[in-house]
Every structure is written in C-alpha cells, then in structure tokens.
Write a structure and sequence with these properties.
heterodimer, A: 368 residues, mainly alpha, 2 domains, 16 helices, 0% strand, B: 466 residues, alpha/beta, FAD/NAD(P)-binding domain, Flavocytochrome C3, Chain A, domain 1, 21 strands, 28% helix, elongated, binds flavin-adenine dinucleotide, binds iron/sulfur cluster
C-alpha cells in the first residue's frame, strides 16, 4: 500500500504546479500533468515514475521551501517512486525486507560473498582456494562450472521474473491492458527517450545536479553506467556462446571478444558508478528523498564492486589471489542479482513503462 | 567586504530583481566595481521578478520561440491603448526601440528560451517565454553577475540614502541586525514598488488594505522610493493606483505569485458578502478585464467576493491551486460560504430569470447576455442550474503600485527643480510609471526593467569611471 499521506502531499503539489505550469519546458512530467485536472493515485504513481529527478523544477520554483507553499517536486516524486519500487516488486513479503534499502542491499552482498567463499572452503578446501591455477578451465578448478552458472542463472531468472510481475502490475494500474503495450511508435519513442536520457537534458543545458548549477555530468556518467552494463552483458553472452556452442573454456585470452567487451564495459561501469557516487555525495540534500538516496548508493556501490572485482580478477587471474577474487566476484554478482528487483535497478522497468505511456498519451493529446 | 573596499565601489545597485541585475551586469561589463544589495535572504532573492513568465520585445520576424514579427508601430499602438496616452512618449519610444536586442542579450546572459516541445506548449507572437519562469531567470542572472565579478550581498536592506543637492554620497544598510554606511561613486535604485508596505497602502485605502493579498515579494517595502521622494525626487504615477486582480482568498498573504489567480469570474457570477452581484462579469474578454477585478473587490465590504459557478463550466478555466467549494444546492453553497442563504438564492434566481438564450462562445464576445438585470452580464451569461454548484472565495491580489520617480533618457532621477540628479539612477518598477502611467501590457514590466536597467548600468559606469 502506498502511503495515503504521501499521495495526498503529491496531489497537493501537483495542483499547485498545474495552476502554475512554469516548468512545462523541462521534462515530460509537466506536460503529462497538464493533460489532467485531477490526480488519481495511479496518475501520481505514473507521474512519479516519469520524473528523472533532474531537479531543474526545484531550483526554478518560487514556492520551494522555505516558502509556505513548500513545493518540492523532485523530493515528493522520489518518495513516491521509492514506495512504488517497494509496492510493485514481487513478492511483496520479500520487497518489504528492503525497506531500509541501502542497508539491506549491503547485508545481502556481504552475505552472498561470505556464502560463496565458505562453500568453496568447505567443499574444495583452502588448498584449492589459495593455489595458482593456469590455463583452460582454471576458474572451474575453484568453482565447478555448474556451481557457477546454475545458481547465477537461477538468481537472474528469479530477478527478471519478479521485475516483470511488478512492471505488469504497474502497467495495469497506470495504463490499462497489456495489449496497449504493443504500440510500435510509442515503444520506439520511449526507447529513444530512454537511451538518450532525454529528460536529463533539462531542455538543453543539462540538469541542476549536484547543485543549482546546470551540468551534463549526471547524464554523461549515467550513460557510462548504462552502456558499461550493456557491454558486460554482451561479454557474458559471447562467453556463453563460446562455452556452449563452440565448446571453448574460460578463461579466454586477453585479446578475445569476451575479455575485451568485459574490460571496456567494466571500466565504463567503474568510472560511471564511481562518478555518480561522488556526485551523490556532494549533492544538495534539500530536493532529495533520503530513502531513494540510500537505494541509489546501495545499487551503485554494488555495481562498482562488481566491476572492480571483475577487473581485478582479470588482472590477477594467474596469481594465487585468483580463487579468492573469483569467490568475491561471484558473491557480489549474486548479491547484485538477488537485489535487482528490490532496489534502484527497478527504475529501468518502471520508468520505461512510464515513458511508453507518456508517448501514447502525448500522441493522442496532440491528435497526431 | 572591508570598509576600505566598500569605499571604492563605482556603482552601488540597490535591489535584487530583474532591473537591478541587468544594471549590475551592464555596469560590471563596462569595467566598474559593482556591489549589489538585496534586502531579502538568498532563498527569496529576485523580488517580483521571480514570479514572472514572459517578456515583450520588438522583433521583426518569427523565431524558434516567437511565432511572428512584432513591429514598432504595433507595439506603440498597444502601449498607447492600455495607458490611454498616460506615458512619456520619449521614454516609451526609447523603451520600445531598445528592447529590440533583448532576446539575444538575455540569451548571452544565461537565459534559456522555451521552445515548443512535442506540440504541447503554446508560444506567443508578442512575448517570449523563458524556460522555467522568473526564478530560473533570476538564478541565471545571479550566476552570470557573480561570474562577471559583481559583488552580491543578501539580507541587506537599504534604509537611508544620503543625497545632497542631487548628489548621492552613501547609503545606510541594515544587515543581520546591524547597520552600516556604504559609499559609492554612483547609485542605481532598482528596489521595486511599495506594494508590500501595508501601512503605506492604508494611507489611501484605510483598513481595507489589511485584507489585500500581495502577489509578490514581501520585501518591496518602498523604503528607497520614500527616501528618494523625501530627498526631492519628482514623483510620477498615481499613488492610489495599483494593478490588482482577483486571487484565491485562501492563498498566502504575500508571495502567492501566479498560482493564486483565478480566471473563473466570466464563467458564472461574482457576489459580495451580502450575496449581491456588483459588476458585469462578462463586460469584455477576460484578458482585457481581469486587472479591474482586484480594485472592484477592494471596494466591496470586507474586501471579499465569491465566484459562483455550476458544474457545466468547471473544466473551462485553468485548474485552480485550491479546490472549488462544492455544494448540492445554492442554499448549501451559501451555508458553506457563510452567506445568507435566502439572499444568495434570490440573486441566483434573479440572474437565471434574466438570462437570454444565445449561442455560447467562451472564446469571443458571444450573444449570451442578461436582460433587465442590474448590473448586467453582457456575455457568456449561462443559467446557474446544473448542480453541484461551486464557489471560489476571492480577494484583491496586488501585483504592483504605480507611484515612482521621474527619470530622463539616461535613467537619471529627475528632481523637483527638473534637473537630473548627477549620480542617482533608477530602473524597473520604481520608475515604470514614466512609461506605463496606467494599465498594463503583459510582459512589459520586465521590458522596462531590462531596458532601463541596461541604460542605468551603462550611464552609472560612465559617470563613475569619468
Ligand atoms: C505574480 C506576478 C507575475 C508577473 N508576471 C510578469 C511577467 O510575466 N512578465 C513581466 O514582464 N512582468 C510580470 N510581472 C511584473 C514584474 O514582476 C515586474 O514588472 C518586474 O519584476 C519589476 O522588476 P524590478 O527589478 O523593478 O523589481 P523586483 O523584481 O520586484 O525587485 C525589487 C528588488 O528590490 C529589493 N528591495 C526592495 N527594497 C529594498 C531595499 N530597501 N534595499 C535593498 N533591496 C530592496 C527586493 O528585495 C527585490 O529584490 C509580474 C508580477 C507578479 C507579482
Ligand atoms: S515546480 Fe514550482 S515553478 Fe515549477 S510548475 Fe511547479 S509550482 Fe510552478
Ligand atoms: S525533477 Fe526534473 S524530471 Fe523531475 S519533475 Fe522536476 S524537472 Fe521534471
């Protein structure tokens, strides 16, 4: 259940914005708001997920606190998004455990690393973990192939399934039938908006992040994270093809496709996630929702650690540190997968759904 | 800011809105040492300028953010029409001509213009909309001013001016409870009108002024204006006059800005606290009439009125910041508004009886009017007969005052003996009455402030460096 107080507060602020409309040039939220005169709970959830928290409207608002009307759109919409992620993620009894998100994500990551390390120690013994392994199949000497791939795949499938259930529920509530999702033009525009991070452009000058000055830093760093993530995904896919189709065993040589893709992706992720973490640390707390900030930091830290341990593993794979690093890396990846549907990663799904709805809506209202 | 540094300022700018910032940036670009004093804390900087939305300027063709040309003779006609000729023609012509490069000048100083996005935004031909509105404009100017090297001080209200024989010597500034004297070679006064000074408004309006809402900043107290007049500056503009509109009575006393205005009056009837109508709600198109309703309500008992509507029209106006008060019957509505139920029922019944059927057209002067009713409703008269009924409580919301000081073409303040002060300049609302003696043109307040701010900055820098 979304908090009624929070919905009421978001509704109050949207009514003020709808009487004002000064911010309509910044992003999709305001034109979408203008298509309505009153706001149902699901309207508010939709608007919240359309907000990229660029904060332009906060610094431009003459009614921002300490003004008595106390308009703080990025904050109230972020609070609502935090609740959306929790409320829509499936199953609910699990998502509730993530109330203190940063903490929960941290604990799970540590636990996952510990479990992998302990399993290796218990099943294979310290002599294997701390030895140097070389050549084809070296990784599997530490952790057998099935022990690596089966749990990871299961976790990933679980995560994607949980997210899918959530986003379908979200779509049903905020838009309607699943059939409406099959709308090529809307999907194309939403995809373009998402891939270009259209709404972090603030109408040209960037967003007011981390402070009142306009900057493109956040959009650029986010691009690094996103495309780094995609490259790593591509690396894993190519590796899977090598393994299953071509029958080649990891580790792959330095010049090979999985290693090149993985390394470039890993570096992009490292720089992007690190940069975003440092932006967040310096960012103005006034327009921020604390819970969302915790969620952001938890997810970014996990991404950062995943790519850091992955890169270290690559660099040190011919030393006795390999076993430990492999255990730590796989543990981090596991932690990342478990927490995907309950943390910041969920924004990918909900925001995309909101963007699709936005392009359907804006097309209908402009009559095109 | 040490005392020694303070003494060496070339230009002291008093105020922190659009006019002050335009003046400060221009003077600084002309290599003057500039200090800007803003009375408000940083969070509320920017005066009434932080509530603005668009600006009117001369342009000879359409652009990405203007739909067509706005030539000089048309601009001039518009100004003449709204002021009824109450304008200093030389200064008015100067304002119009010097506005021609504003679009480009503002962009160079950090302002971003709003383009139509995905076809939802409506642009205008005469006025350009800046992205994010007035606070974004003010933020951009403060940022540019700081980068240019203008020194900025907040919480710095100018309390006294030392002006002798038309020469400015120093200003007394209150800052965080203490006061100090600041000297400078020249001063630019851009501190707005006196609309937030309730005791001053009471000189003309009596106790009624307690019931006014002030749409803009509470910091426009008119202290500097009073000082100037006391030092013998020649006044301009009718001191009793203000621009005032109908705002939601539930809004804040100060600084409600644009959101509390209500455009509902032509869609129903407006009654006072005796449940009587008092003016033709459909006299003319709303953009031509909205600005008389503040004054009309200010003359009603207890300065309160109610816009009464029925459910037919509720989607026809801009959404309101507070919800309309609903009721199933006129009687229930009266009770909710604490009006005499029989009186409101009688007013509505009489109005409904007088409505003559006609083609309804909210976008033009239509044929729906009353007959035999006093006052009449000349257009858009539809019976109030589809429940639920709705009401908005209305108060006068003061936008700005007209009283100011006379200036010449170099923005110098003109004294009672008709001679311009040597080193005292004025820009913005404090001198707008020279150009706009009466009435209002949307987006023209910023035009006057920008044009005269730039002139004042240039002339003050020249005067100080000479
Ligand atoms: C709700 C609203 C909407 C408006 N919309 C528009 C619009 O869209 N377009 C348009 O052109 N005009 C608009 N106007 C009118 C416009 O705001 C004014 O014409 C314009 O802002 C005047 O600029 P200014 O710099 O002279 O005064 P202001 O912007 O009011 O600035 C005056 C400054 O002086 C400071 N000050 C006052 N006294 C002292 C003192 N003693 N010492 C130091 N500092 C002092 C104040 O704190 C303030 O910063 C609007 C007005 C309102 C209220
Ligand atoms: S955030 Fe403030 S300035 Fe922007 S539309 Fe809302 S009320 Fe207006
Ligand atoms: S924070 Fe940015 S994206 Fe969110 S509503 Fe405001 S302007 Fe739009």
């Amino acid at each position: 259940m979304l908090s009624p107080d929070l919905l009421a507060e978001a509704g109050r602020q949207m009514a003020i914005c709808n009487a004002c409309r000064y911010c309509e040039g910044y992003c999709a939220v305001f034109p979408a708001m203008e298509r309505r005169r009153t706001f149902t709970d699901t309207d508010l959830v939709y608007l919240a997920n359309l907000c990229f928290e660029c904060r332009d409207c906060y610094y431009a608002c003459p009614y921002a606190p300490p003004h008595q009307l106390a308009v703080n759109v990025p904050k109230v919409l972020a609070e609502l998004r935090t609740e959306t992620y929790r409320d829509y993620a499936a199953p609910r009894f699990v998502s509730r455990l993530f109330r203190r998100n940063g903490l929960a994500v941290g604990l799970i990551a540590v636990a996952a690393v510990a479990i992998v390390a302990l399993l290796v120690l218990a099943l294979r013994g310290p002599s294997v973990l701390f030895a140097t392994h070389l050549g084809e199949g070296a990784f599997y000497a530490v952790i057998p192939f099935a022990g690596m791939v089966l749990p990871a795949s299961a976790l990933l499938l679980y995560a994607l399934g949980a997210l899918l259930v959530g986003v379908v529920r979200f779509w049903r509530d905020t838009r309607g039938t699943l059939r409406e999702l099959i709308d090529a033009r809307a999907v194309v525009r939403a995809t373009r908006d998402a891939l270009g991070l259209e709404y972090l452009k603030g109408g040209g000058a960037g967003c007011t992040y981390p402070d009142a000055r306009f900057s493109h830093a956040r959009r650029r760093l986010h691009h690094l994270v996103f495309y780094g993530f995609l490259l790593d995904l591509a690396a894993t896919t190519v590796a899977a093809i090598y393994h299953h189709v071509l029958g080649w065993q990891a580790p792959y040589p330095l010049g090979s496709l999985p290693v090149v893709l993985g390394t470039v992706g890993g570096v992009l992720l490292l720089v992007g996630a690190g940069g975003l973490l440092s932006l967040k640390r310096r960012s103005d707390r006034q327009p921020a929702d604390r819970a969302m900030l915790g969620m952001d930091v938890g997810f970014l830290a996990l991404l950062f650690l995943t790519s850091l341990t992955g890169l270290l593993l690559l660099a040190l794979r011919e030393t006795p540190a390999m076993g430990t690093l492999l255990a730590v890396h796989l543990g981090t990846v596991g932690g990342l997968f478990i927490t995907l549907p309950y943390g910041k990663f969920a924004h990918v799904a909900f925001r995309y759904a909101a963007l699709v709805q936005n392009s359907i809506e804006s097309r209908r209202s402009s009559g095109a | 800011m040490s005392d020694r540094a303070a003494r060496t300022f070339d230009v002291l700018v008093v105020g922190g809105g659009n006019a002050a910032l335009c003046a400060a940036m221009t003077a600084r670009r002309a290599a003057a040492k500039v200090l800007l004093l803003e009375a408000s804390p940083e969070a509320f900087r920017g005066g009434n300028s932080r509530h603005t939305r668009d600006i009117r300027y001369l342009h000879d063709r359409s652009t990405d953010y203007l739909t067509g040309a706005y030539p000089e003779d048309e601009f001039w006609d518009d100004l003449f029409r709204v002021t009824g000729g109450e304008t200093n023609e030389r200064l008015a012509g100067l304002t119009i001509r010097e506005s021609a490069d504003l679009g480009e000048w503002m962009a160079r100083h950090g302002i971003r213009w709003q383009r139509p996005l995905h076809g939802t935004l409506h642009l205008s031909r005469t006025n350009a909309f800046f992205l994010g509105g007035g606070k974004a404009l003010v933020n951009a100017y403060y940022d540019t001013a700081r980068r240019l090297g203008v020194q900025l001080a907040y919480d710095s209200e100018v309390r006294e001016l030392d002006i002798r024989e038309g020469r400015f010597l120093s200003a007394v500034v209150g800052r965080e409870g203490e006061s100090r004297e600041i000297r400078a070679k020249t001063v630019i006064l851009a501190s707005g009108g006196f609309e937030a000074n309730i005791p001053w408004l009471k000189e003309y309006w009596g106790e009624a002024a307690d019931n006014f809402a002030i749409r803009g900043t509470p910091y426009n107290q008119g202290r500097v204006l009073r000082q100037l007049l006391d030092h013998g500056a020649r006044p301009v503009g009718n001191p009793r006059e203000f621009h005032a509109i109908a705002v939601d009575a539930r809004g804040p006393k100060f600084d409600g800005g644009i959101v509390t205005r209500l455009d509902t009056i032509p869609f129903g009837i407006a009654v006072n606290e005796h449940a009587r109508r008092f003016y033709d709600e459909g006299e003319d198109l709303w953009p031509k009439r909205y600005a008389i309703w503040g004054g009309l309500i200010a003359r009603q008992p207890d300065q309160i009125a109610f816009s009464i509507l029925d459910s037919k029209v509720m989607e026809r106006f801009m959404p309101s910041v507070f919800p309309a008060i609903p009721a199933h019957s006129v009687r229930e509505l009266a009770l909710a508004l604490k009006l005499a139920p029989t009186a409101l029922e009688a007013t509505v019944a009489e109005f409904n009886r007088s409505v003559r059927p006609g083609p309804y057209d909210p976008s033009g002067l239509d044929g729906c009017r009353t007959e035999g009713l006093e006052p009449p409703k000349s257009h858009w008269a539809l019976r109030l007969d589809v429940p639920p009924f709705y009401a908005y409580p209305l108060r006068p919301g003061i936008t700005f005052t007209y009283l100011g000081v006379t200036v010449d073409e170099r923005a110098r303040v003109v004294m009672q003996d008709d001679r311009p002060a040597q080193n005292v300049f004025a820009a913005g609302e404090i001198m707008a009455g020279n150009v706009l003696g009466r009435g209002y043109l949307a987006g023209f307040g910023l035009t006057i402030g920008s044009v005269f701010g730039r002139i004042a900055g240039r002339e003050a820098a020249r005067c100080a460096v000479a």
